[in-house]
Amino acid sequence: MRPDGVGRRATIALALAGAAIGSCARVPRPCAAPPSSATPTAARRDSCLAPPWTIDPQRPVSGVAGWSAAPCNEDRSAGSAYFIHDGPRKLTHGELIAVQRTLVAFVGGAASTGIGGCCSAAVAAKTQVACLKVWIGLCSISTTDLVRAVDGALREQELGAGHIGVDVGIGGRVGPRCEPNDPACGPLDDREPAGPGVASQPGCAAERSPIDGRVSMGACAHDGECVIDSCESRCAPWNAESGGMRTCDDREHAEKEHAYCGCVSGRCAWFRPARR
Length: 276
Description:
The protein is an alpha+beta fold. The protein has four helices and twelve strands; from the N terminus they run αβββαβαβαβββββββ. The protein folds into two domains: 46-171; 176-276, no CATH class. The protein is 21% helix and 22% strand. Strands 1, 2, 3, 4, 5 and 6 form a six-stranded mixed sheet that branches. It has a four-stranded antiparallel sheet with strand order 7-11-12-8, with no helix packed on it. Helix 2 (93-107) packs across helix 4 (143-156). The two termini are 41 Å apart.
């Protein structure tokens, strides 16, 4: 049955009302923040993936007598490595815990520690040794200093004949996630935190409204210097991330609110683009 004139007019009115509501409520995606001349760009940390912070994967040495060194990765890339003190006696669990406590006192809040197999299942099967596992951030502690700390703990507790390993995992970024001259180097969308950022586009929102109650983190010169941390809660500078393991109970970001992470007035912050 065909609708009469009244029905047609009602249908058209509803469609126009819906379009108007959608247009008024639409929030355009934000533009990339223009690079700031007032805030200097943070220095890159590429050197932190080279000795003394890491081993040379092509010529691995521990720097400590009695300890061997090897890269964790089969491709021998810089970064994570393991070190073995090849003593004749296997340490008991209690002795491993005692050495770990000394290591924890040495690294403080700069790292997280544990006990397990070295690196991967393949490396653990090959080495057959209990490893003190240490997760550190770039440029925080050199691998040689870590091995020296464990070696000192063995001597202090008269465990110089112990067979033990140290597995060092290094985390953190060496630079911003993108450069300001990259057209896609915009803020991060909390619904797609792993994405490269929101590309600038015609008609995008220029103004940014920081979200009340969200903590603004360190300084930034452009959006590429801001990242969403592993808990997807903080919008922080790329070089402020810790290499240690962090609990995700202190969530600062309410998922029900759509937000962006970017550079707002020289600080990394959660924000919403201005409505039109």
